[in-house]
Design goal:
With 305 residues, the chain is α/β, with parallel strands linked by helices. It has a single domain, classed as Inosine-uridine Nucleoside N-ribohydrolase, Chain A, CATH 3.90.245.10. 34% of the residues lie in helices and 20% in strands. The strands form two sheets. Strands 3-2-1-4-5-6-12-10-11 form a nine-stranded mixed sheet, with helices on both faces. The protein has a three-stranded antiparallel sheet with strand order 7-9-8. α5 (128-136) links the parallel β4 and β5. α4 packs across α5 and α5 (128-136) packs across α7.
């Protein structure tokens, strides 16, 4: 079976940990590089968390530390959702792993250049690293097959009334990316709020395997839903789209990111009805086969150790 080479840019984060597991163990994907960005917690913590996960799974995927702050704004994190460390609840063992001695945007560029075929970028945190890559190396777009993001919303937000967290943390980066001309797939809150793992499934996780035991411990500290009502797997949707695009209903849309509004900065303006008469620049996921998603999650996590 042919596999899709991917680079995963992430800010782990509890739901990021599940997305990383799926990227590692879904047989359709070939994870080449993991890069980190400040978002859910500081970049030092997201990098530590990424390295801990690679050690937990005994994987030698290189990790590169990325941007510590948004392009022009102060960082606002989501420790209130993921805990102070970003992955509260599980005692990871000590290790000696270190990130690459180069910033994330440089590591992504080098990985793209080393690949014999175009690589899919998957970004499940703020888009700062991707914006830096496109600014420093605009010619790299020919080496990028597409960019799949978890971010944005065609409706309401989860950080401000209108803005989703990943885009709201660095609206200027989001705007730069959506204006880049890359093929973009946007998995926003319209689908990620539907991507629930059921309480019944969550209750079985600790008996599944070591990965299930670890995730169950993390989920007990995750505040996007609850173990009793179900947990939203926001970031996992980007990986799910790569493996099972048929689970998603998407529509080509023109998407702009608001950067100036006093109350609306970070809003993704998704022109579903074509009112601006602008060429679509993203495939926007608007609906999800929830049962199919849940089945796929159970299948892929069962493949983990």
């Amino acid at each position: 079976m042919s596999t899709t080479p991917i680079i995963l840019d992430t800010d782990p984060g509890i739901d990021d940990a599940v997305a990383i597991a799926a990227a590692l163990f879904a047989p359709q994907l070939d994870l080449k590089l993991l890069t980190t960005v400040a978002g859910n917690v500081s970049v030092e913590k997201t990098t530590r968390n990424a390295l801990q996960l690679m050690h937990f799974w005994q994987k030698d995927i290189p990790v590169a530390q990325g941007a510590a702050t948004p392009l022009v704004r102060k960082l606002r994190d989501a420790a209130y959702v993921h805990g102070e460390s970003g992955m509260e609840g599980y005692a990871f063992v000590e290790h000696q792993r270190q990130p690459l001695d180069k910033p994330a945007f440089q590591a992504i560029y080098d990985c793209l250049n080393a690949s014999p075929e175009p690589v899919t970028l998957v970004a499940i945190g703020p888009l700062t690293n991707i914006a830096l890559l496109l600014t420093q190396y605009p010619g790299c777009k020919a080496k990028i097959k597409r960019l799949v993001i978890m971010g944005g919303s065609a409706g309401r937000g989860n950080f401000t009334p209108n803005a989703e967290f990943n885009i709201a943390i660095d609206p200027e980066a989001g705007a730069r990316v959506f204006e880049s001309g890359l093929e973009i797939v946007m998995c926003g809150l319209d689908v990620t709020n539907q991507a629930l793992l059921s309480p019944e499934y969550l209750a079985t996780l600790s008996e599944l395997n070591q990965t299930g035991k670890m995730l169950h411990a993390l989920f007990s500290h995750y505040r996007s839903g609850s173990m009793a009502t179900g947990l939203r797997m926001h970031d996992l949707c980007a990986i799910a789209w790569l493996v099972k695009p048929e689970l998603f209903q998407t529509q080509p849309c023109f998407v702009a990111v608001e950067t100036h509004g006093e109350f609306t900065a970070g809003t993704t303006v998704v022109d579903i009805e074509g009112r601006y008469q602008r060429e679509p620049n993203a495939h926007v996921a608007l609906d999800l086969d929830v049962a199919g998603f849940q089945t796929w999650v159970a299948e892929v996590l069962a493949l983990a150790p």
